[in-house]
Design goal:
It is globular, with a radius of gyration of 21 Å. It has one domain: Rossmann fold. The longest helix is centred in the middle third of the chain and has 16 residues, at about 195-210. The strands form two sheets. The chain has an eight-stranded mixed sheet with strand order 6-7-8-3-9-10-12-11, sandwiched between helices. A four-stranded antiparallel sheet has the order 2-1-4-5. A hairpin with a 2-residue loop joins strand 11 and strand 12 (about 325). The protein is an alpha/beta fold. The protein has helices at about 50-60, 90-95, 120-130, 135-150, 165-175, 195-210, 225-230, 250-255, 260-265, 275-280, 310; strands at about 5-20, 20-35, 40-45, 65-80, 80-85, 100-105, 185-190, 215-220, 235-240, 240-250, 320, 325.
Length: about 325
């Protein structure tokens, strides 16, 4: 069994929105438990608004209003140390955890680089935020080495972000995010604004930093099943703030267990033979309002197999096969 890198236990993180005297609580991550092991490349998929990006911020404990961490535990395993991230002050997270133990490629990463600052200056500022007395020449030498490892020419370090193509900017973000060799890298929709060729280049870069041991595990967040299949070894499916299925990529693609997972896969047009055989279909209805989610299973208003118990009680996640978990009453022994 591989060692744990990150663990979420029954995590709840809600957005609290105030409109005059009315407070609206949006339960965007609601009772999520997840384990990331060393060597994992985990793809987290689901429709827009299901909580994927919020989950990424919770894994980092990058909590900013109106998002509030409500309950649960977020742990990061750093060697023999277990870091309870939800109990650490923000200053400790910034100085000792973010970048060094866990790092994120944020959504809209192409805009994450300040256009008026050279890449060199940006790198120095980031590293000095962890170690103010660091030797600048050593930092630049380390950055140049990292650039070469992921296929970026050395001179890029002296350029401004606006001088780079979208693909090169994305790879610069990957280089910066992994400069301190974090054990876990979270990539939030890193290919969404790129053309197909550049997407493949970015995916290859992520795989490269994993294969050469710069990082130990990747969490790859996307709505694109086809992209997940190119990079991930495991899929976690989210729906309406919950994890509904978790298992090996090829097993889930070949035989999805949860009705939502099945609908999600069938709604994607890809050239794979099994998809052509199954045909294309859409999931009827709309995702629920997470300020007022339905009782029981949150998918039941859209599910063709919904039973009375689905409308009353939330299904627990159970392991139905080795390494395959699903939260659905269809697989419960009653």
């Amino acid at each position: 069994m591989s060692s744990l890198v990150s663990e979420l236990e029954n995590v709840r993180a809600y957005y609290r929105q105030s409109f005059g005297n009315i407070t609206r609580v949006v339960r965007v991550v609601d009772g999520v438990s997840l384990k990331i092991f060393e060597g994992d490349i985990v793809g987290i998929v689901g429709e827009s608004g299901c909580g994927k990006s919020t989950l990424a911020n919770v894994m980092m404990m990058n909590i900013k209003p109106p998002l509030q961490f409500v309950d649960g535990a977020v742990r990061l395993y750093a060697g023999d140390n277990i870091l309870e991230l939800n109990k650490l002050p923000i200053e400790v997270l910034r100085e000792r955890v973010w970048g060094e133990e866990i790092a994120i490629i944020p959504q809209a990463a192409l805009n994450a680089l300040m256009p008026t600052i050279r890449i060199r200056r940006l790198i120095l500022d980031i590293v000095k935020s962890h170690d103010p007395d660091v030797d600048e020449n050593e930092v630049i030498s380390r950055a140049v080495k990292r650039f070469k490892e992921i296929g970026l020419p050395e001179h890029v370090i002296n350029m401004y972000p606006f001088e780079l193509s979208g693909g090169m900017r994305q790879r610069v973000v990957i280089a910066v995010a992994t400069l301190l060799n974090p054990r876990l890298l979270i990539a939030d929709e890193p290919t969404s604004a790129l053309d197909v060729i550049t997407q493949k280049m970015v995916l290859k870069t992520l795989v490269d930093v994993y294969k050469i041991g710069i990082i130990k595990s990747i969490v790859f967040i996307t709505h694109d099943i086809a992209t997940v299949r190119q990079i991930a070894s495991r899929i976690v499916v989210m729906y309406a703030g919950k994890i509904v299925e978790d298992g090996p990529v090829e097993d889930i693609i070949a035989k999805p267990l949860h009705p939502y997972t099945d609908g999600l896969i069938r709604s994607v047009l890809t050239p794979e033979e099994e998809v052509r055989k199954r045909g294309i279909k859409h999931i009827p209805g709309q995702p629920p309002d997470l300020a007022n989610p339905p009782p029981g299973c949150r998918f039941h208003p859209r599910c063709p197999f919904a039973m009375d118990i689905c409308r009353r009680e939330e299904p627990p996640a159970v392991e139905v096969e080795k390494g395959r978990f699903v939260a659905c009453w269809l697989y419960m022994k009653r």
